């Protein structure tokens, strides 16, 4: 009984997520990644060059490297994220203006 409910809930959750994805405007700017995820992408590129390392091991190595960063190195990553967030906010302002104009034109 529990297993059946779990399977049913999982299917319903997938369907809800799919509906949300279908309702997303493809022109809407994407929110920038956090400092860690930016670092993670770069770190994975370097680590993946080594053959024979699985994804979970790569994630552990990248996480350890992140924790070992000095304050200055960490600040560099944080600064790039702040810049990306400012750019995102500007893009969202433009997006919202055009969306409002489209809505006004449709009425």
Automatic annotation (TrEMBL):
Pfam families to which the protein is assigned, alphabetical: HMG_box
GO cellular component: nucleus
Domain of life: Eukaryota
InterPro entries xrefs: HMG_box_dom, HMG_box_dom_sf, HMGB6/HMGB13
GO molecular function: DNA binding
Keywords from the UniProt entry: Coiled coil, DNA-binding, Nucleus
Region entry Disordered, spans: 1-39
Domain HMG box: 29-96
Coiled coil: 78-105
Residue stretches of biased makeup (Basic and acidic residues): 1-28
Residue range(s) of DNA binding per entry: 29-96
PANTHER family assigned: HIGH MOBILITY GROUP B PROTEIN 13
Protein's recorded name: HMG box domain-containing protein
Species this protein is from: Solanum commersonii
